[in-house]
Amino acid sequence: MPETRIDALAHVLVDYSAEVQPGQFVWINGGAAASPLLLAIYRHVLERGAHPFLTSQPDETEAVFYRHADDDQLAFVSPAHRTLVEEIDAQINVLSQTNTKALSNVDPAKQAKRAGAAQELQSRFMQRAADGELNWTLTLFPTSAYAQDAEMSLGEFEDFVFGAALLERDDPIAAWKELSAHQQRLVDWLSEKADVHLTGPGTDLRLSIRDRVWINADGRRNFPDGEVFTAPVEDSVEGQIRYTYPAVFQGREVEGVRLTFEGGRVVDASAEKNESFLHQMLDADDGARRIGEFAIGTNPGIQRFSKNILFDEKIGGTVHLALGKGYPDTGSQNDSAIHWDMICDLREGGQVTVDGTPFARDGEILI
After folding, report:
1. Which of 102, 196, 356, 361 has its CA 20 to 30 A from that of 132?
2. Which structural domains are found in the chain, ordered by start?
3. Would you call 365 exposed, middle or buried from its count of C-beta atoms within 10 A (0-12, 13-18, 19+)?
């Protein structure tokens, strides 16, 4: 990625997404492949008068860990990580995998145990964010591995990322504020509503959003962004859903996922590929069988599937419902070691109805 693009991305991440202020303690984390962007973020944080702390690791770190870690090591929680979660004012995390299939052969039981060990710190991190004690943002540095997954050249994928992030605009921060205002109108309309009905090919699902809070995801946490989301009432989800695209999680690609809900819980699940992994994740804990997030994608710059959830869950005209942990600031009470976003494309024959009023049809928002 050209240096000017890297600098533009770092500028938006520091000044808009994380809103770094003088004197703050800022944790910057990412893979070694993202070094140019990590250093640009580091410099911008210093220029803001804040205190950066940079951590980076080789791409194969997780694969080596799962290959050699014993049960005690899988369950170990680093005191250093615990301290960071309690002390930071902001976190900027950069994804930069050079092999997105590195964990494909890892024992899912090991991944589930590791996720369970990290659950307490994850919950604390999310609660501090919900309480306004820290800002966090997650982004991606283009690599050949991501480009291959998206079936693009590296240059094409860089253009895709750049466009989705609105960085080609003369003033990217102003463009994100404009998108934020548009999404806020959707949030205002959806607030105080109660019942949602999703219909589409293989999908007939009902859920309650009564007394839940809608969040305007406008580039503050994920970057790029472009969605509005909440959490359904935990025991309200009823019916069936067929997820359109492969659900990628912890290095596994699960295709053709179909779920049936009763009383808010998954009571039947199938997949055309990696079904055993799906069932193991559903059995990770009780919360893994419930929906922690319901979201509507709105980003006009993302129209194609890339096998990367950071982008795919924002595709305009789609919805996604995440199994597992919900965000506390939505009012979610669901706790789990997992948070697994799965996408349902409603652009062809789909509809979202809210309190009996059509909200979206064939991917077009109607209100």
Report:
1. 196
2. 3-141 (3.40.1830.10), 172-365 (no CATH)
3. middle
Cβ-proximal residues to 62 (8 Å cutoff; 6+ apart), any chain: 102, 103
Report how far residue 50's alpha carbon sits from residue 44's, in angstroms, rounded to the nearest whole number: 9
pLDDT tens column, 168-223: 888 999 999 999 999 999 999 999 999 999 999 999 999 999 999 999 999 999 99
Give mean pLDDT in consecutive 10-residue pieces for the chain, a chain of 367 residues. 83 97 98 96 98 95 95 96 97 96 91 91 93 96 96 95 90 93 96 96 97 96 95 98 92 94 98 95 95 94 89 93 94 94 94 97 92
Q: Kindly report whether the global pTM for this prediction surpasses the value 0.70.
A: yes
Strand runs (DSSP E) across 203-327, as ranges? 203-208, 215-217, 227-230, 238-242, 247-249, 252-254, 258-262, 265-270, 291-297, 318-324
Residue 224 token pair: 């790029």
The amino acid occupying position 146 is: Y
